[in-house]
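During the reporting period the student researcher (J.K.) took over the structure-prediction task from the postdoctoral fellow and processed the backlog of single-chain submissions. One of the processed entries is reproduced below for the supervisory committee.
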Amino acid sequence: MYRTRTVGNHPKRVRIIETFEVVDENGKKEDVDVVREYEPDYLLRYGTNPHQPSAHYSNGLPKLSEIKTGKSGMSQTNVEDILHACEILKYFSDPACAIMKHLNPSGVAVRSTPKEALEYAWNCDYQAAFGGVAVFNKPVDMDVVNSTKGHYIEVICAPDFEEGVLDSLQDRGDLRVVQVSGIDKLPKYVGDEVQPNIKTLEGHLFLETPYLTKFRTVEDLLPHVVSERKPSELELRNMLNAWYVCSSVRSNGIVLWKDGYSLGIGTGQQDRITAVEQAIEKNRNLNWKAREKNRKRGSYILFGAAIASDGFFPFVDSIELCGKAGIQAIIQPGGSKRDEEVIEAANKYNMSMVFTGERCFSHH
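J.K. obtained the following structure tokens:
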């Protein structure tokens, strides 16, 4: 069932026409059509589930090219995982890796080499990473290939592959290898040129401006500090990176981050405190299991970490939980009726806190 392509009847191309009313200098109104054409990239193995046929179309960046196939090709979920990973990796210029499962990152890391980024991203949640999609923002070399041995990875995706890499992966029958271009050109900051996102649901269609952040550098965070203790430069960097990752985590979303890599991710919860508990408890449970199996994970302790929340904290319970766990920096939108109580709780634990004034919900 999972290795067989599900055949469907798909259009040769998709054309979307948007009609805008334009008023000229004489006050005359006129309808102007803007046409967007989506060309087929390739048929997918299947859609979200094996009985759902699916095809992939594109008209912009990032561009994907499957250069090694397996398992009858990629599914829609594989492609969506890649695209959501690109939405994370676009913020980072240093070597970075995002490992994706069900359109959410199980781990993200920014390190000195792609190999190190893979190892740290994998170890963030080595249980969830099983069967994931590993996406890089830098070329993959043989060090990365050797690090993937013993890991079950569905897809490896990168801008390029150094000599010998593709040959060495040919014996991995199910593995798909995808080349991606244009990650660094994706819009990310307020003011960047964007196309609206299109979402359809049961005969309804939404056109939404994509999420863009106003925070380009750590200096942009300084005017938004609300705690008594001002964050250190390292805390600011941890908060900013956590915020970037959190913007691509399904709401309610929480990201724990320290020294260039995620420590735990809480995702898809319907209340804030459970998302916080999920991220913290995942980290603790994996640390216990790692010790039992003599697995290297000692650098993933929570003390000194930053936490990003895609929405405000409605109560102090999450702050109390963070303080007791040793988390030292918090970045969140603010805007709760209990903001003053939340700030007081952060001060109680000598934590630094930033109110971004922007929310980064993601309902993918």
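The committee noted the following: The two ends are 26 Å apart (CA to CA).
J.K. will present the remaining backlog at the next meeting.
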